[in-house]
Amino acid sequence: MKYIIFLLLFTFAYAQPLPLTPQEKQIIQAHPLTCISTGLWAPFNLLEDDKLVGIGFDYWDLIRERLGIEDGCKTANNWTQVLDAIKNTTADMTIAAQATPERLKYAVFSKSYAKYPMVITTKNNVGFIHDIELIRNKVIVMPKKYATTAILLKHYPHLNIKFTDSIDHALSLVEKGEAFATIDILPVIAYKINKNNFETLKISGSIPEYFSVGIMLRKDYAMLVPLINKAIDSITKEEKNAINKRWIMIHRQQKIPRKYFYALLASALFVFTFFSVWLLLLKKEIIQKNRTEKKLKKLVNIDSLTGIFNRHMLDATLDNEIALVQRHGNPLCVIFFDIDDFKNINDRYGHKVGDFILKELSKLIAKTIRKSDVFGRWGGDEFLLILLETKEGDALIFAEHLDKVIQEHHFKWDISISCSFGVTCYKNGDTRESMMSRVDKYFYSTKRNGNNTLKG
């Protein structure tokens, strides 16, 4: 009874109609809205007792009451039906959607009434994922035609994404171990995990992108957007908090009898103090461990003289990129090169000068290449450059550019150097060994033809 009274008072206080001009009222009357939605995207839209409810409908109720729009929304079997209905103008709007390039061809959108982070869901035994690139080779399942999927494909096209029919199916595949992760917005994941008792799943991280939710209307109803935006602007912080509390805060805490309160408080303070000290000591230990791991990683993967990747890291990277090429078919090339007559520099100026030339050349190349390229020292005065998403013609042009940059650079002691280059690209069935054998063959062909040449 108290809850009903609260809702009545809340509605009376906040859902009052907005003052509209006669022209604005005429626009609303001339455009009666046929709403369509699914009950498949809890907690934004779901079916309870054969009625559509959720975060989206709570916001829509506030908007339509302020504008004097009648209630009512028909239920679609899936999201594709919703989009088709708006595209074909058999329905006029839906209450919770985000704009995508494809949808903007036939629809318009209000400003967002809510914005939520997108989170990564995995099994409980997976650690914290601070960067989505850590799971680029894992299977990620995403629902087809969802805006969250479009966001992921736009910003992370290289991810190994498999498609499914719904977020519920995606979560079940992760639970069964048939996929590593799925990604959706925080309220949806939190609601689904709790409601469907996915006890083996958890939120393991997030991505930098956010999901903004607004009202989607057929394109020829664009004149309603400013009015809907006006209603959205009138929604108060208290109203938003009430909606989030209703749908995102799944568990409620029961009242504690007063006689137990102080005993529980004292116990809580003791536990808090104990764990604070323990966490402080643990944090120091983790920091020291991370420093040690970074040093070890650097020793394993970084060339100690030049500070760029070493042979071990280049081998591992090339193996990994070849595997991705075999899966996705993206182009991949390598450039192998060395310093012409480097022995003469060591003999004439000494090994310290030779080491300086190697370091300065490494810095020069590192400044010239793209961020996506992988550059390292193969050994001695030999270097390898791995070019991702690069076709053979572009790789040859880039090798010529590197040659020019090196020849025009003024090294210390007025030493001028040139390099010889070999270039090759991935061919069907290639392994790291076959690619390196082929580029090595091209490279030594340039040596036989005279230094400062290029072969691909």
From TrEMBL:
<feature type="domain" description="GGDEF">
    <location>
        <begin position="330"/>
        <end position="456"/>
    </location>
</feature>
<dbReference type="InterPro" id="IPR050469">
    <property type="entry name" value="Diguanylate_Cyclase"/>
</dbReference>
<dbReference type="Pfam" id="PF00497">
    <property type="entry name" value="SBP_bac_3"/>
</dbReference>
<keyword id="KW-1133">Transmembrane helix</keyword>
<dbReference type="InterPro" id="IPR043128">
    <property type="entry name" value="Rev_trsase/Diguanyl_cyclase"/>
</dbReference>
<dbReference type="Pfam" id="PF00990">
    <property type="entry name" value="GGDEF"/>
</dbReference>
<feature type="transmembrane region" description="Helical">
    <location>
        <begin position="260"/>
        <end position="281"/>
    </location>
</feature>
<dbReference type="GO" id="GO:0052621">
    <property type="term" value="F:diguanylate cyclase activity"/>
</dbReference>
<protein>
    <submittedName>
        <fullName>Diguanylate cyclase/phosphodiesterase (GGDEF &amp; EAL domains) with PAS/PAC sensor(S)</fullName>
    </submittedName>
</protein>
<dbReference type="InterPro" id="IPR001638">
    <property type="entry name" value="Solute-binding_3/MltF_N"/>
</dbReference>
<dbReference type="InterPro" id="IPR000160">
    <property type="entry name" value="GGDEF_dom"/>
</dbReference>
<keyword id="KW-0812">Transmembrane</keyword>
<keyword id="KW-0472">Membrane</keyword>
<dbReference type="InterPro" id="IPR029787">
    <property type="entry name" value="Nucleotide_cyclase"/>
</dbReference>
